[in-house]
Amino acid sequence: MTIKPASLGVILYGTDHPPVSIDRFELGPLSFDLEAGKIRYIRFAGIETLRCIAFVVRGPGWESPAPVISNLKSDQSEDGLSIRYRAFYETAGGQLEVAAAIDAPRQGGIVFTAEAHALTDFTTARTSFCILHPIEAVAGKPLDLTRPDESVERVRFPDHISAHQPFMNIRALSHELAGGIRATVRMEGDIWEMEDQRNWTDASFKTYGRPRDLPWPYTIGKGERVVQRAILVFERASPVAATAAPKDIVISIGNAPIGRLPRVALAVSPEEAPLAMAAAPALSAAPHELIAWYEHGAQDLVTLAAYAALGRRLNAPVGLELVLPCKAPVEREMADAAALLRRADLKPSSLIAIQAPMTRWVLKRPEELGLPGFAEVYAAARRCFPGVALGAGVTSNFTEFNIDRPDLEGVDYVTHSTAAVIHEPDDRSVMETLETLPHIFRSMRHIAGQLPYRLGPSAIGMRYNPYGKTTEANPANVRIAFARQDPRQRGLFGAAFALGYFCRAVEAGIDSVCLGAPTGPFGLMHRRTDYSQPWFDAQLKPAVYPLFHPIMALATANGALTFSVKSSDPKRVLGLAYEHGKQRRLLWLANLTADPQTVHVPGELAGSTTLRRLDSASAAAATLDPTGFAAGGRPMSESVLTLGPYAVAALGGAF
């Protein structure tokens, strides 16, 4: 039987569903991209001004349906640029069409008008413009805020991540860029407020219409029209010309150790435990810890016994995410769970105890919900699980930690998870979440001080959705928000994302990172599932996904000394370096983009370094022969290398 070669789409993204097309427009010093009806990366004189202006349509459960774009026309003349299109949306809430007009006059600025027409009664969580300010060079900086009565206040963008809306009742926002340029965006057609999207790992501050405190979902009646406008203008002291960013990437490596690699943990769920057992021998390194989900009353002794057996098979301790149903006193439920664990011969190495109502989107502390407070839960955990490391935090996003901040007295570590497809699922938005991680880590340190910081089960996909329903199956194998199964987990994209994630964790001195699982939607290794996995399902021998290689390498290094790695453009290429044997180091590099990148590494690496490259040419073979890839490599004779789209590379030597 002949196996067809993997397509480029499957190698890069795990799916042949293509990325959204991007149209780039330039008008003097102004440039921007048009992607799926959104204006993105608005730059003036080469400086990013806004990350996005988009008319966003959400479903009743905050779903983000992809628009069907039609009648797209653009015209550039002496007067400026004109773009027109129509966008059709269909969700569980009904059908809606948007007529969009984008005008960029020659003298500068953008006017974006949207008229939404409900074709049926349309139930939505939000249908409104969203304006995104990029976090780089903006967080903590001054901002002029215009109120609806046209009064102006001098404020600042939040530095540490704001748990709640930093600004409400907004008409316009104005901030300074480099070179004496000022950008002002004005919104019309609703009441506007801002949220700190860094909470959800988005690399932006979002200003949106319809205040979040108003009831949602709400219904736009059939035939009703919603008209809004966003107006962006620029002021500058003198004429400016656009400047181009350097094309090549320069990497520099420090000589002195800066810390140690985060310990590598893997997650395991009730449904995956027995399947992970079958795949366990293929793991080339044991995780520092298995993080197991256990919802008391929903899973039984069989599940706990499977966790214990998997831990023994991998020679890895098992940490527990314990969800208490809150149907009996907390002490009794905790004691019942401990007794069941003893019967399963499972003593957890760590424990985070969460009361079930707190796993959903709540804006109140436990006592306000009629639940035992954090101190009472911690005390019960100490009595029922003596000697076990006790964590404070959440099993979902930093958002929930930041809003419902747990008490930290008497705990051993703090934890939360992340997901990259909460708001926008396109490739660039997902990879942008890596920009936000330093802000999250810094904000957590501000809250928790020097308590050990462990990142819980995280991935591109979303384990569960505290705000509504998670998309479980994703049968079309596409990029969608709130998806549990994201195809990019299986592609080079997933490997670049995972390595970039660890790069950010190394910079912040994170203690451990749980990124992925042995098998399943967040797996490192392929297994047959009830959803299609193109190319992988056709293989006659076991296969691993590309991210298996960097994660297993980091697990093998197991807390090795790390060295600083600086990239001249960390949005395109990130790297990390660590001690790898006596007098040797290993440098990993990740291309975070869909474009090839030319990378200059320190000259002393040439001639003394072995290069392994995981890219579109080598990925298929590396998935079928993981030990061969790990043991391979070739001498690197030059200090310049090319990284293909989403490629990762390992450079090992005496440097």
Helix content: 10-25%
Radius of gyration, in Å, reads: 25 Å
Largest sheet: 9 strands, antiparallel
- Quote the distance from N terminus to C terminus: 46 Å
Please give the count of helices. 11
Instruction: Give unreliable regions as ranges.
Output: none
Strand-residue proportion: 35-45%
Structure classification: alpha+beta
The average pLDDT score comes to 92
Strand order of the largest sheet: 5-6-7-8-19-15-14-11-12
Record field, number of beta strands: 36
Global morphology? globular
Helices and strands, with pairings:
Layout: H1 8-13, E1 22-27, E2 30-35, E3 38-44, E4 47-57, E5 68-77, E6 80-91, E7 94-105, E8 110-118, E9 122-124, E10 127-134, E11 142-146, E12 152-156, E13 167-170, E14 172-176, E15 181-188, E16 192-196, E17 204-209, E18 218-220, E19 225-236, E20 249-260, E21 263-268, H2 273-279, E22 289-295, H3 301-314, E23 318-324, H4 330-343, E24 350-355, H5 374-384, E25 389-393, H6 398-403, E26 413-416, H7 427-448, E27 453-458, H8 492-508, E28 512-515, H9 548-557, E29 561-567, E30 573-579, E31 585-591, E32 597-600, E33 609-614, H10 619-624, H11 626-631, E34 634-636, E35 640-643, E36 648-653
Parallel strand pairs: 20-32, 21-22, 21-28, 22-23, 23-24, 24-25, 25-26, 26-27, 27-28
Antiparallel strand pairs: 1-2, 2-3, 3-4, 4-10, 5-6, 6-7, 7-8, 8-19, 9-18, 10-17, 11-12, 11-14, 13-16, 14-15, 15-19, 16-17, 20-29, 29-30, 30-31, 31-36, 32-35, 33-34, 33-36
Helix pairs in contact: 2-3, 4-5, 7-8
